[in-house]
Amino acid sequence: MILLNEVLLVYSLIVTTILTYMVVMTRDLVRAVILSACQSIFFSIALYCILAIDIVLVYLPVAVGIYSVVFLYAIRKTEHLEKPVVGSHKVVALIVAVGAILVVALIVHSIMSGLTGWTPSKIIRPLARFIISRTINYYEPEFWTSSPEAITATVWDYRGLDTFFEITVFYGAIVGCLALFRFIEVIFKEKLREVEKLPKELGLSLITKTVCRVVFALISIIAINIAIHGHLTPGGGFQGGATYVIGPLLIMVALSQYFLRRIGYEERKLILLRSLGLIAIALVALIPALLGGFVFQNQYKPWSPYIGYPPYVDNVWISGSIFLFNVFDAIAVATGFCLIFLVLSIPEEYFKKLLEVKP
Amino acid sequence: MSSMVLELNYVLFFIGITLTTIGAIFDVIASIGLLRFPEFYVRLHAATIGSIGGAVVPIIGVAILALSCTFLGPQRFFIFGCSIVIAMIIFFVAPVGSHAIARAAYRSRTVVPKYVVHDELRRVRG
Amino acid sequence: MGFSIETFLMNYVLYFIVPCFLISMTLYLIRLIKGPTIPDMVLATACIAYDACFFMCMLSIYFRNAYLILAAFCLALWAFILDLYVAKYLEARELGE
Amino acid sequence: MIVSYVIWVVCYSCLILTIFIALYGIITRPNLIKKIIAYTIFSDSINLFIVFLGYRRLPNAKIAVLPLKPTPEEIAMYEETAVDPLVQCLVLTAIVIGLAVILFFTFLAIQLYRLYGTLDSREITKKSRLRW
After folding, report:
1. Which domain holds residue B95?
2. Is A307 found in the same domain as A158?
3. Distance CA A304, CA A292 (A)
């Protein structure tokens, strides 16, 4: 029996291996970035073929849209050619090759001799069975989350604390980025005041500018749609936020960052919005605990006095706290990444000025 | 009445299959062109065939095909609408990508045109 | 036994259309790996992205699930974004200007 | 039966090879940006490997999204055919957080270039007073 998705899966994985080799071996960094973007397109086909639609929705913007522009920014700010490797890494290459061959042989052997059971599994683990059968079960509602989307329900209800600490890591990474580039806004503010009258020549050609404005609107609509329907259809806060970031990024590349700053994307405002989003997530998680339930409680549980968030309001299905979490998380993720890209797009000469000022 | 609907399904099905097949053939032709043409500005033609003929036409084919697939239930109208919108987006957006990269390649002198007979653009820009 | 749309569609897609697209994707990949200049590689990547978009539409019929087409929607919206990034990289001094 | 074995052996071998090639890139390439690119591929292939563990080889496999008002029969049907939601949930957050961490790495690399004038890790080691 040949399944269509598995043909594509095998093809894309083989291609991925070849492209990874090319990425590692090219010396021109721009070529490496293009090859790795192509490689991530094939990865997303593979993810699509194993039916992980939520992962595809978050992987597509992150890998195809954001990684490449981050690396191009970095290459433009630094250097675009790798210096040749002097000497040889024969020992490392040998160790890696032997390790890879050993692991592959081990896996082939264990699949062939049946150690891993029926490896393309026809059953799933008991925990996954539990989640799928309880997530929208009206007939035994002790463990239900009232959300038909099992993945978003797992992210924000069954494993809520895990997600909360992941968001803490995200917060820490963004604070670290901003701390590395601190004091720059003092110098860059003066330039921004001059740039009230924008020169027309900034950005790409007129055709590109016009189309990018339309695509910006479309991307925003799709992102909001993914975020606020996250509890009913594939999607959620992380996906919506990551999708939204592509829009400002497109404007920044096609129409210059000064345009983006003029339409209202400013550092202070974005920091404020991101903090509000994070505080709102913490509040929504803590309110049940203050009212007698436990942290991250969503629906009514027989052993907890808190009555739970309502599954629907006025005939609109919102799945309790999951809708709120999705919206606030999308705001936090989108504004956090926009902030980083605004800081990243400040021209290099101002940093040089800043480094000269310091002793 | 029901036989009418059934026959309409067959008509839609064959239209969809035809469009998808045309798209597949176009895509093979475009890829051969992209591989065999001698220079970047010549390869642009092949790449545009690959995006419009090789993606827009078969996606419209998939949309019409989805309408005829009664085993999908009411979901087929959703797939139809989304595919049409996707085809329109690609139709709208793919030429912009080619335009931007060609303009950048010309203006930054990354690729110097070899097979050019008369370069009006250079005369204008100086 | 009458003519069944479903069986015919699955067989035709599996044995004709998907191989055609896989062949053309392989040829695009050869151009991507050979590509003498950077714009050539970008063109090949864009073509591969549009093909991937088609595959996603096709597979949503194959899996009989309409939600899956959302991914194709997203990919179609920013399949051309690498063109813009590289164009900007080639043209401008700094990417933000 | 044999088709399924072949498919699975090829898939696992390709993924393992990708992981090891990316690891080789991280170790041996001198440029820091190149190291970060190899690191993204490394983390992405490990994520893909995790998602793989939740796949079911069924011709009528379904995504883990149920209808809004399911009957008991529908719930039982989804239990039999849907893919594993737990691994997807783990990877979903890992990708976004990984992006934030990679941005932090990139910022560090740019700052290193400003201070040392190069991104070559060997020269940075030479120029800095750190010897190890």
Report:
1. 2-125
2. yes
3. 7
C67 in A contact zone (CB under 8 Å)? yes
Spatial separation of the C-alpha atoms in residues D132 and D120, rounded to whole Å: 17
Question: What's the total number of domains in chain A?
Answer: 3
CA distance D126 to B52: 53
List beta partners, residue D82: D62
The answer to whether residues B63 and C60 touch, using CB atoms and an 8 Å cutoff, is: no
CA angle, corner C92, sides to C90 and C93, nearest 5?
A: 110
D78–chain C nearest CA distance, Å = 13
Question: For chain B, what is the domain count?
Answer: 1
Mapping DSSP to helix (H, G, I), strand (E, B) and coil, where does residue A81 land? Answer: strand
**What's the rounded Cα separation, in Å, for the pair B113 and D109?**
37
Tokens encoding D33: 């940006």
Is any Cβ of chain C less than 8 angstroms from the Cβ of A233? Answer: yes
* CA-based nearest distance A212→chain D, Å: 24
Taking the C-alpha atoms of residue A319 and residue A36, their distance in angstroms, rounded to an integer, is 39
Q: Answer whether D20's CB lies under 8 Å from A82's CB.
A: no
pTM over 0.80: yes
Fold for D2-127, please state it: Helix Hairpins (1.10.287)
Q: How many CB pairs under 8 A join A and C?
A: 153
C75 touches chain A (CB under 8 A): yes
Q: Could you give the ipTM of this predicted complex?
A: 0.94
Return averaged pLDDT per consecutive 10 residues of chain A, 359 residues in all.
Answer: 85 94 92 94 93 92 91 89 77 84 82 63 83 87 87 90 90 90 77 66 83 93 92 91 93 87 87 93 91 86 85 87 93 93 86 71
- CB contacts of A212 in chain C (<8 Å) are 84
- Could you give the residue ranges of the DSSP H alpha helices within chain B? 2-36, 40-51, 57-68, 75-107, 120-125
